[in-house]
Every structure is written in structure tokens, then in C-alpha cells.
Amino acid sequence: MAQYASIEIIRPDDWHLHLRDGAAMADVVGLSARQFARAIVMPNLKPPVVTTEQALAYRERILAALPASRDFEPLMTLYLTDRTTPEEITRAKDSGLVAACKLYPAGATTNSESGVTDIPRLKPVLEAMREAGMPLLVHGEVTDEAIDIFDREPVFIERVLRPLIDQVPGLRIVLEHVTTAEAVSFVRSGPETLAATITPHHLLYNRNAILVGGIRPHFYCLPVLKRERHRLALVEAATSGHPRFFLGTDSAPHAVGSKEGRCGCAGLFSAHAALELYAEVFDQAGALERLEGFASLHGPDFYGLPRNQARIRLIREPWTVPESYAFGDSQVVPMRAAETIGWRIERR
Ligand SMILES: NC(=O)N[C@@H](CC(=O)O)C(=O)O
Ligand SMILES: [Zn+2]
Ligand SMILES: [Zn+2]
Prior knowledge:
Blueprint: E1 6-10, E2 14-17, H1 22-33, E3 38-41, H2 52-65, E4 73-79, H3 86-95, E5 98-103, H4 123-132, E6 136-138, H5 152-167, E7 173-175, H6 181-189, E8 194-198, H7 200-204, H8 208-211, H9 228-239, E9 245-247, H10 256-259, H11 274-284, H12 291-303, E10 311-320, E11 325-327, E12 330-332, E13 340-345
Parallel strand pairs: 2-3, 3-4, 4-5, 5-6, 6-7, 7-8, 8-9
Antiparallel strand pairs: 1-10, 10-13, 11-12
Helix pairs in contact: 3-4
This protein binds N-carbamoyl-L-aspartate and zinc ion (2 copies).
């Protein structure tokens, strides 16, 4: 098998990113813009981004915080609630700047308190999205207390996603941050309108990372890391060349104090090195030739957006990740903190 010293690909996009807001956002946005041309920006701020007007204002704050040299396009999203109307979908579509809407089952993850409690009642909104050609992005976990946290994704697929696809056929759906073999086979056997994003952490780690040799809060995210057999299924899907699996980091920075407490927040921060971490995965799988499809082609194709023109080069050259990055009035601990990564992006 060829051992590439470097690899050049079309500049990638991140189809699932948390940028937060204010000074913290200003500290992290440049790290994503360094590698990605565009990113789907998640709307789970406090309070959430529920109207087109709020999404456009958030977009302006992101653009204002970008380093002058960076060309980076934030693709905005709306946070669906029980009160979202079909008219709001039309406004979002007409703005030309809102790319998708996000469904958080209420209580499923970080800042999802205002999420949807009654998904069947959302049908008129989902139909308006289908007419607008606007994808529905889904955090796919049930919140039922009786369901084990490691089973919440497969149960969501059977209880919620399968019926939803039947009720609104033709709606484009992205099952975000898939973590299980069940999700992979559901997407593979699903309609052409169903896709999934995969994170670097779910490709690189299994649940041992959280629990072996001490409890490691920086590996805690939702959906939680799963068994090794699930990780292997994700690697197979990502590196297979299948066009309905693509890159979405779910980089979700939290101030170090909110991760390392008695009740730590869910979310891993990977924006400092996301593409480099994906390169490791594809390299280990002997599939570097397929990185470009996963990182740069399948996403825009599914969203119906143009592919990027610029190119980016990754070099096989280890570097040590800092212990932390600035994050507003605090710090954020990055994935692989104080450890090495085998690839780096060529500076231009
Ligand atoms: N993934 C996470 O563990 N956390 C995300 C929310 C999410 O994507 O579910 C966050 O906003 O912190
Ligand atoms: Zn999520
Ligand atoms: Zn997320």
C-alpha cells in the first residue's frame, strides 16, 4: 500500500459545527476557517437561534469575528421548537443564507431544553422544508429515561426516524454524528434523501477512552462513544466512498470548568485539528484516496451546493497539540491535548 508523504484535496467543509457566541466564538472560529471553506453552524445558543432574523444576526457576528485573511462561509441553521411555523421556513429559505433546520428532541443534549417535544405535530413545518428543499438535521437520540444511554440512537431510529421518513417522504434528512452500526446500516439501506455525518472522535475512539484508567470528561459527548464494533462500522462507512456519509466534526467547545465539574457538559473540541484527525483515520484504514470524497464532495452534493474550488495539502508530519486554547474568559481543552497528531495542514 502506498505510504503518502502528503496528500492534496479540494478544500473541505464541516457539515456540523458549534461555534458558540461572543468572545468564546471569536477565539475558536479562526481554527475552523483555517481548514474549512464552509460550515453548518449549529443553532443551540442560549437562547437558541429560532428565527431567520436571529440566524442572520448570528451570521454577522461570526463574519465580524473572522480574521481578515480568512474566507469562510457560515451556513446558518434554525433551531426547531414546538412553536416553529411553516412561514418561518419560507422566510429562512428566502434569505438565501439559512441552509438547514435542526431538530433536537427536547432534553437530548447540550442546550436542547427548547427542543421539540411533539415531533408528529411538526409535520406542516417539515412539509414546508421539503417544499423549500431545506434539509432537516437531526440529533438522533430518544430522551426516554427507561432507555439505556448506549441504546438511545438505535431506539430513536426505530421509534422516530423511520416513521418520520414515511410521513414526509422526499424530505432531505441528515442523521447527525452517527455512532452505531445500526445507524450506519439504516442510512445505507435508506432512501437517497437520507445521509449522515461522522465525527473524528467517533472514528478514533471507543467508550474505553472515557472510562479506562480514570474518568476522562473531555471524551464525554453525546451521543456517547460506543463499543469498538460500532467504531469499526463507522470507519468502514466513512472510508467506503459511499456518497451519503460525510464530514461533520461536531466540534463542541466548552470552558474547561464546565467539563471538569461534578456534572460535566457533553461535547468534544476538535476544530484545532479536525481534518488532520480524519486524515489519521483514513490513513490507518489504507483509504487516503477516499478522504476527498468524504471531506469535500459528498457534503455539498447532498446539500445541493457547489463544490469548493480551492485545494488544501496535508503533510505527514507529527506535531504536538497544545494543552489548551483560549476560550473567552476561560480555556478549552482540545482533543489530543498534549499528545501528537500525525498530519498537519500545509501553511500557504
Ligand atoms: N455533541 C455534544 O456532546 N454536544 C453538543 C450538542 C450536540 O451536538 O448534541 C454541544 O453543543 O455541546
Ligand atoms: Zn447533537
Ligand atoms: Zn453537535
